[in-house]
Amino acid sequence: MREPEELLDLLLDLPQLYQAELSPKGGWLVWVWNGVDEVPNLWARPVGGERRRLTEGPTKNFFVSFLPHERGVVFEADPGDERAGLFARPFDGDARPLTEPHPPYFVRGGDLHPERPWLFFGANYDFSRGVTIEPTWIWRKDLVTGQYLPLARPPRPGSGWPELSPDGRHLIYFRADLHPAGRQVWLVDAEGREDREFLNAGPKSKVWATWTSTGQVAFLAEAEGYRKLGIKALSGETRMLVDDPALNLEHLSRLAATESVQALVIEDARNYPLVIDVTGGRQFSMRPPYGNLSLLGRTEEGWVGVFSSSVHPADIVLLDLDQPDPETFQSLTGIGDFTPLRPGDLVPAEPVEWRSTDGLRVHGFVYRTPRRPKGTIVLIHGGPTAHAAERVNPEVQYYLARGFNVFLPNYRGSTGYGLAFQEKIKETGWGGMEQEDIRTGIEALIEAGIAERYKVGVTGTSYGGYSSWWQITHAPKALVAAAAPICGMTDLVVDYYTTRPDLRPYSEEMLGGSPEEVPERYRERSPIHYVDRIEGKLLIVQGALDPNVTPENVAAVRERLEAHGIPYELLIFEDEGHGIVKKENRRVLYKRLADFFEAAFDG
User: Fold this and answer.
1) Fewer CB within 10 A of the end CB, N or C, for the chain?
2) Alpha carbons 580 and 574: distance in angstroms, whole number
3) Helix (H), strand (E), coil (C) string for 138-191
């Protein structure tokens, strides 16, 4: 058994796969690793060739799209405040800027035309007036003249991420004009002459879409409690390909070098691919006996996908569709060159389920420390439209080495359990029954002898931070002895008016309107109004550059805590935004959190 500090060094050096992409013709793999460097960076590998680093420097770098004819990539460089600039990086050349390196707006997407010197992207900015705006407009920039042409001007926030068709003639993008809970797909031509609604499943239903290699639009649309998959031609002809309420479909994508698309089937937070040929309609799936699998497409080497489990770091692998055993998968990134860690060095996840106060079945994962338990840390995922999956998490594994059990609850509102479960959070809104799901999960662990009263702490980032605030202000010390909210909302009104404008519709969707429309709901669900109830220990963590859950949340709650004489600790990362990402900062954070919970449980 490795010592905690030695294991932490190895875990922080372990490459964490953030993104994985296969170029449209299957010639190049591109991915983002965090852990090799201080910040996330792009890497690439030609089929049959050696991997190479594409980016470096102090910014957080993420993949956006491929350059035309597979010559390289478009990537965004985020200095920490999410106002990222777009750059083109040929595989055999240097990066060049496509926008300002640090623009005064938030970028969505970024595609280059296959023949013309045009960049297409979304931005909450009016270039004709030089001012920021609330909606995200779709823009075409001429890279020779520098001229900006607005192709689409949605009236409300919530739109963005345009995707260019393979022939460069049209773009699809999303709008939420009808209701904050809905999302429609719109179609605009590259000249900006026609901007029209293309797919609409209802004002309160969401549609996801992507171009197919044949120039049609594949879509995943919400129905009554499930999602169905179809394809629509620009002429309007529509075919449904999968319409099965028993299948929980998520994450639609085009498979490179094929005429197929993929939707992930997710059951109890584990996913496997369902592949549909959009021309012939043939379907097949591949379900490994454990872990999570998604496909990227085909190359000359064979089928390529991404596999992960709680003891297998997420990796891009070469696989045989007739051999679902993960032990037969071959790494294409060479991740083993960067770490001596093997599955036997890591603690596996155990599924756990319980019933909430209304009888709803809730599911999650628990990790049991191999040491004598000091207590239990509840790590609450953000979103809330996300889920904790079986995935190697350095934070979790370090806590285990320090002697803590770790609990990851997937409360209502989480993905991975079907649309009906995901939508249940809206019945009571943020700060409602999903917080009961977390509380009853803690109680279930205590009853099972996994957790111990007065030795349970909660932490998490973003919505996980909000949930940590909620639990410490509403649960007795016997259930929640300590909380360390990270970039978590404290006053939902403050958060609404200080966050990125494109994120406000999400608050409206989850809380039933804006602060003007439902002021009592925003007040009732804001943890800041209950800080006088805090019995346990409190550590507040924040990124000073965060534009999502802004530092104003911390300023407001500190004033309230001090007014009530509630003690707290504070940890601010001056060079971080929404979440603590940099390697050395994560080292500081994980050690500080482990020390904090250990002291709280001993107190």
Assistant:
1) N
2) 10
3) EEEEECCCCCEEEEECCCCCCCEEEEECCCCCEEEEEECCCCCCCEEEEEEECC
Transcribe 28-97 into DSSP letters. Answer: EEEEEEESSSSS-EEEEEETTS--EE---SSSEEEEEEEPGGGSEEEEEEE-SSS-PEEEEEETTS--EE
DSSP state letters, 348-396: PPEEEEEE-TTS-EEEEEEE--SS---EEEEEE-SSSS----S---HHH
| CA pair distance 463, 430, nearest whole angstrom | 9
410-429 residues labelled b (16+ CB within 10 A) or e (exposed) = bbbbbbbbbbebbebbbebb
Beta-carbon count within 10 A of 527 CB: 29
What is the dihedral sign for C-alpha 494, 497, 502, 504?
positive
Q: Is residue 379 part of a domain?
A: yes
Residue 587 and residue 440: Cα distance in Å, rounded? Answer: 31
Beta strands at 375-380 and 456-461: parallel, antiparallel or unpaired: parallel
Same-domain check for residues 277 and 398: no
User: What is the chain's alpha carbon radius of gyration, rounded to the nearest angstrom?
Assistant: 24
Residues facing residue 263 across a β-bridge: 274
Query: In this structure, are 380 and 244 located in the same domain?
Result: no
CA distance 207 to 221: 4
The tokens for 140 are 């075409």
In this structure, are 262 and 377 located in the same domain? no
Domains: count for the chain: 2
pTM over 0.90: yes
Residue span of the structural domain in which 240 resides: 207-285
Backbone angles phi, psi at 271, to 5 degrees: -120, 150
pLDDT-derived band of residue 557, with 50, 70 and 90 as boundaries? Answer: very high
Cβ atoms of residues 157 and 499 within 8 Å:
no
Q: With 90 as the cut, is the pLDDT of residue 603 above it? A: no
User: What length is written for the chain?
Assistant: 603
Closest by Cα among 125, 127, 100, 122 to 111: 122
> In this structure, what token pair is assigned to residue 113?
């035309």
Dist. CA 239–CA 23, nearest whole Å: 27
Contact 76, 87 (CB under 8 A): yes
**CA separation for the pair 29, 317 (Å, rounded):** 11
Please write the tens of the pLDDT for every residue from 275-319. 999 998 899 999 999 999 999 999 999 999 999 999 999 999 999
